[in-house]
Amino acid sequence: MKCAAFCLALGLFSSACSPQVGTTSESGRKSTRTEEKAPQEKFSAYLFTYFTGNSKAEESIRFAISQDGYNFRALNGNQPILNSAQISSTGGVRDPHILRGADGKTFYMVVTDMVSANGWSSNRAMVLLKSTDLINWTSSVVNIQKRFAGNEKLLRVWAPQTIYDPEAKKYMVYFSMKHGDDPDKIYYAYANPDFTDLESEPKQLYFSPTNGAAIDGDIVLKDGKYHLFFKTEGEGSGIKIAVSDKLTGGYVLQDRYVQQTKDPVEGAGVFKLIDEEGYILMYDVYTKGKYQFTKTTDLQNFTVVDNDVTMNFHPRHGTVIPITAQESEALVRQWLPAGEVLLSAQAKELKKNNLFLDSAKRTLHLPVKPGTDLSAFDPGFVSLPGVKVSRSAADFTKGAVNYTVEIKGKEPQTFAVTAREDHNTVLEGYYADPDIIYSEKNGKYYLYPTSDGFTGWSGTYFKAFSSEDLVNWKDEGVILDLPKDVSWGKRNAWAPAIIEKKINGQYKYFFYFTAAQKVGVAVSDSPTGPFVDSGKPLVDALPKGVTGGQQIDPDVFTDPKTGKSYLYWGNGYMAGAELNADMVSLKPGTTKVMTPDKTFREGTHVLYRNGTYYFLWSEDDTRSENYRVRYGTSSSPLGKITVPANNLVIAKDPASGIYGTGHNSVIQVPGKDEWYIVYHRFNYPKGITMGDAAGFNREVAIDRMEFNPDGSIKQVTPTHEGIKGLNRK
């Protein structure tokens, strides 16, 4: 990801955009270069150019806009503004970098020509794009291996960026390349006058003193010196800076990392703030699925400003440039519908992931958090260039409030906006596979989900949340981070389960989790950690007689009749075994395959009520809208499971827009025959439109679960309202 805060001495920055595209070619023609510096116009907004992920559909150029450089809104519904198949040789593009030309009115964009599904060493090309209005673009593919001799061992060409060289009076493109066993190195070459080809042989730009890998370069000119931000690869990967008096060489390393996180990062991008002192350094914290924004005045000291930043999209490796009022108004007019303006609501009381807009009916529903005063509620619509929002009143207790959106150059539109205290979903953000306990030690409820929102279920950490009433939840932070805390499995942190046990008079917490499709266990003295992994997987092989499936989705249960504890797991099969007294090993000879019927897919959960053991499980695939929960009963923790004829516990409710209801746990209010089901479902309202991606953009909900007089479970209706809360009337 990149962002050039370009030639500040010339008052220049970067920028780009486009839905109509010109012809794509492997080479360009020559012409006379006559470009001259134009007077600087007043900038009043920011354009963010980015891509969103590692699937082919996500490897496309997208745009977002901001009035202040902190609050960004996606344009075109966060869909591509260019068709990657039309502009690239691979069908996908990544790492977009945009630049405003020296003439002040031409924009240049460069992107990696790559589809990650083909492998990280599969591309040899970049795409050069050019525009005069940020709307219409022409493009050319430059294949380095074909274009320049001596690149037979070239494996990849990554993350190009552009900067204007005032001495050469040319546009310099710099990028990383890897040849054979050599590390990735940053090179540069000059573009031809039409910006359709590279006219000079690539030369190495930065020479690492350790010959270490360097990628994702971003050059910033400050106080007459060029600052090259780049990512180191391998051990201690992160962002460093090298400084030179000359654009094309002589960079001296400042040997320290400047990212303000211990997590791996990439794609440093720097942009100058328009009406404030200083710069923003942003980067992709790619293992956590988030961006981090930091602020600096000297390019040496950086302060995290994440709490000041909002985005309604998840960017990957992008660039921000300042734009004029005229440019921003054109972008808004082209790609921002009136309804999307209202989806920018940012009030702290909102459940921001669950705003529901009906563009046809011109209605918007705003779900708010518990305790919100709806008689004087301000949704906090973000100020956007060329947009005016006015309202009829502010009291949502009396019904819908009318808001009128005026976009310059378009007819005004009025929307009826309602607000209501909805308790589902219960956690802010994307989470799934929730497991819940009541802690006797602390007298609180604790919730442990899969951290979701990562393409292909690629999350690597677990968090805990606490509550006294099952409605108001506190984020207790990360309790187990696979890359840092687990030696045997560092990927796919899925579907945890936890239990509180009193051992020798002391409460202990045993946290069972999935990592790399194996089941592990970590132990702590507190429900919020820190948890210490046992050092090896507890389950890493299929049970005897099972020929397919995965070792995932653990569940732990203590039999109230005997005090013995049991572990259950499996995808494609259900297995159970008794745990030894140490809770970190299985009792030999007790493992049993317990698959109840053909509807079983995964997500076993066991509870005990009135002498009966209930086994709940998920049917279908988590990517399916029909993912749902069924149950059976048994007379013992490892006994034969009887499946009732009507055994559906919870399923989708299309009338309410609720889909993919599955992978649950259940909590009983201590001392009462009062039960609640905790489950995940597709993100509302977007999930049903997301295809397979709905399966890793899930949210957690809680609804009441009741039993019939004969002990059978009543089918639960999933709701947006949720439960009232245990301490609320």
CATH superfamily annotation of the largest domain: Glycosyl hydrolase domain, family 43
- Measured between the Cα atoms of the first and last residue, the distance is 50 Å
Range of helix content: under 10%
How large a portion of the residues is in β-strands, by DSSP E?
Answer: 35-45%
Q: What would you call the structural class?
A: mainly beta
- The whole-number mean of residue pLDDT values reads 92
The shape is globular
**Integer tally of domains:** 3
- How would you name the oligomeric state of the polypeptide chains in this document? single chain
Radius of gyration: 28 Å
Q: Give the CATH level 1 class of the largest domain.
A: Mainly Beta
Family: Belongs to the glycosyl hydrolase 43 family.
Pfam families: Glyco_hydro_43 (PF04616)
Region (Disordered): 18-38
Biased composition (Basic and acidic residues): 27-38
Describe this structure in words.
- By secondary structure, the chain is mainly beta.
- It folds into 3 domains: 8-25 and 36-335, Tachylectin-2, Chain A; 338-421, Immunoglobulin-like (Sandwich); 431-705, Tachylectin-2, Chain A (5 Propeller).
- Helices cover 4% and strands 40% of the residues.
- Strands 1-8-7-6-5 form a 5-stranded mixed sheet. Strands 21-4-3-2-22 form a 5-stranded mixed sheet. Strands 23-24-27-26-25 form a 5-stranded mixed sheet.
